[in-house]
Design goal:
The complex is a heterodimer.
Chain A: H1 13-37, H2 42-64, H3 73-88, H4 94-116, H5 121-141, H6 143-146, E1 152-153, H7 171-193, H8 195-205, H9 207-212, H10 217-243, E2 245-246, H11 253-266, H12 271-291, H13 296-310, H14 314-333
Antiparallel strand pairs in A: 1-2
Chain B: E1 3-14, E2 17-28, E3 32-36, H1 43-51, E4 58-63, E5 66-67, H2 73-78, E6 81-83, H3 96-108, H4 122-134, H5 150-163, E7 168-172, H6 183-191, E8 198-202, H7 206-212, E9 215-220, E10 223-228, H8 230-233, H9 237-249
Parallel strand pairs in B: 3-8, 3-9, 6-7, 7-8
Antiparallel strand pairs in B: 1-2, 1-4, 4-5, 9-10
Helix pairs in contact in B: 3-4, 3-5, 4-5, 5-6
Classes of the chains: A mainly alpha, B alpha/beta.
Chain lengths: 335, 252
């Protein structure tokens, strides 16, 4: 039997580098296009980027390690509150605030991973919900620190590079967020291609085989929780800087569940899927909620059912498949 | 020759059921030992005890003179006790090359590095290419595992084990599920295993056992009923009764 060359991860390094650069350029272009096309919606678009970082962080845990979590907002909210509290206490440099958010997310990720990795399967999922609910309740009760149910408000970050104010139009915040997203995305691409990233993929597919190789799962997965926490925390900090408020919703089960829906929509285990899922979900939410604020979830639900039934690999997987079929057709048509 | 691996008076009971009872087996460097026994003899439990997946009820396991009875599965692998699986346990979306490189990187202590490219380690890639070539897997080295034949997947299990450079290798039915036309491939791969490596093979295919093993142990109903040369095993009355007899009647 003659088989076509396998379209697998074993593409030549040069080809995969070219694909990566094209991917990064596409994200940057799409981001800049948003800037020019929707100048009145930059605050919304910045929120999309902030949530995209959350969904990317969830992809690391769910998509690459195979650990289901419905508590990812715990990491996002930790970053948002840490940046908010720091900003209200005189730390206003935006880059520093992102780092503070990432650090808070990483520490929370360490704790969350330590607890969650004690269990497997359904109990693990329940633990993730318990953690985000606990943190939500703690943030609600510690009003002196977090503002309780009112949240934090009145943060005024310093101008970006000392020049660009985080103003009402949100231009600085958006471009700042886009830059952050690109940096994080490139870093994550490198991480998932590293030996560590390959072991995570292996753990998702067959933990017993990984242990037979002499590799302990726990430290690897815990490290991924820390990385995931840093990414989610940076996303939360970006949200805090851009909106200049931090509310309990950033630390909610609802946001965690939405993040998982966005990830499934876009496609698991593929960093592009996390971005596509976030953009599509939030765009639908934004547009449909404006038309009918009560029933927008119905449409999202229908969309999700359609995706799960007809495109189980998510939007990105389906695009990938379509591209493969198209290029195969081209190759056949060519000389 | 020195003993590299030994189990002494190893037992495992589940409730009142003695699944493994008072097993003592020692292996020297370069040994080729086959463990055989009818279904339900306790072979799987034995493998789980040896690899550290379940703790024994009594007895000890020694590797290179060290008592590893209390060590977990990962720690045993790191000390050089490596296994293959009866049903292939491979990563469907990865290539044979990636499997072998991962094993090499782990042996070198680099398997979980973040600041490195998995495909960027030239020395590991070269070594993986050598191992895969030895087993005739070069042509499929960069295909996804789901796309390669089952016999090749079995060979890949052996390739991974070779990359781990074990001191003791436990082959759990290396020819299980392989079409008989491909069995010679497995046999040839086993012949190429390093001469100094101690190999314990658990296998149903008696032809393979007789060609590969220089010593045979027979497990029946959780107990060792025979230890000796392959040539003698068929003549042993207890063995015929417990094992070969049932095989003969099975009309194989």
């Amino acid at each position: 039997m003659v088989q076509a060359p396998a379209p697998s991860a074993a593409a030549t390094p040069a080809r995969s580098l070219g694909r990566d650069l094209a991917g990064f350029a596409l994200i940057a272009l799409a981001g800049l296009a948003g800037y020019w096309l929707f100048p009145d919606n930059l605050a919304f678009l910045t929120r999309v980027i902030s949530v995209a970082l959350l969904v990317l962080s969830l992809d690391l845990i769910v998509g690459y390690c195979g650990i289901a979590s419905l508590g990812q907002a715990a990491l996002y909210g930790a970053g948002a509150y840490a940046a908010g509290i720091a900003c209200l206490n005189g730390v206003t440099e935006p880059f520093l605030l992102i780092l503070i958010g990432a650090a808070a997310g990483a520490v929370t990720g360490l704790l969350m991973g330590t607890v969650m990795l004690r269990a497997h399967g359904l109990p693990q999922l329940v633990l993730s919900i318990a953690i985000v609910q606990l943190l939500h309740e703690a943030a609600n009760k510690l009003a002196w620190l977090t503002g309780g149910s009112d949240g934090l408000a009145g943060m005024v970050p310093a101008p970006l590079f000392g020049l660009f104010e985080f103003d009402l139009w949100g231009r600085a915040a958006y471009l700042f967020g886009l830059g952050l997203l690109l940096v994080v995305f490139v870093a994550l691409k490198l991480i998932v291609r590293s030996p560590f990233g390959m072991v995570c993929r292996g753990l998702k597919e067959d933990p017993l085989r990984i242990s037979a190789l002499g590799i302990s799962a726990f430290p690897v997965l815990l490290r991924m929780f820390v990385i995931s926490g840093a990414v989610a925390g940076a996303g939360g900090a970006l949200g805090a800087i851009a909106t200049q408020v931090v509310g309990l919703d950033s630390l909610s089960f609802e946001l965690s569940a939405n993040a998982l829906v966005m990830l499934v929509l876009g496609g698991l285990g593929n960093l592009y899927g996390a971005l596509i899922g976030t953009v599509v979900f939030m765009a639908v939410e934004h547009i449909v909620a404006a038309i009918n604020p009560f029933h927008w979830m119905t449409l999202v639900g229908a969309l999700l059912i359609a995706i799960v039934l007809f495109a189980p690999r998510g939007l990105s997987g389906t695009l990938d498949e379509a591209a493969r079929i198209l290029t195969r057709g081209q190759r056949r048509a060519g000389p | 020759m020195s003993t590299v691996f030994a189990v002494d008076h190893l037992s495992k009971s589940f409730g009142g059921l003695k699944v493994n009872h008072d097993l003592s087996i020692a292996m020297t460097e370069g040994e080729r030992l086959a463990l055989i026994g009818p279904n339900g003899a306790g072979k799987t439990t034995f493998v789980n005890l040896v690899t550290g997946r379940i703790p024994p009820s009594a007895g000890t396991v020694h590797l290179m003179g060290e008592d590893i009875t209390r060590l977990g599965a990962v720690a045993r692998v790191r000390r050089g006790l490596v296994r293959t699986f009866q049903v292939t346990r491979l990563f469907p979306d990865m290539t044979p090359e990636e499997h072998v490189v991962m094993a090499i990187l782990q042996r070198q202590g680099h398997a979980t590095r973040i600041l490195a490219r998995f495909h960027g380690n030239g020395a590991a890639m070269d070594e993986a290419a050598d191992i895969l070539a030895t087993l005739g897997l070069t042509d499929v080295a960069r295909r996804k595992v789901v796309e390669i034949a089952y016999g090749q997947q079995r060979l890949l299990e052996i390739a991974i084990a070779m990359a781990q450079r074990p001191k003791v290798l436990l082959l759990d039915e290396p020819a299980a599920g392989v079409p008989s036309s491909d069995t010679p491939l497995i046999e040839r791969a086993l012949e190429r295993l390093p001469a100094s490596l101690a190999v314990l093979m658990i296998e149903h295919d008696m032809d393979l056992v007789f060609r590969f093993a220089r010593r045979v142990v027979v497990l029946a109903a959780g107990e060792l009923i025979f230890q000796g040369l392959p040539a003698d095993v068929a003549r042993d009355e207890k063995v015929r009764e417990a094992y070969l007899g049932s095989y003969a009647h099975a009309g194989r």
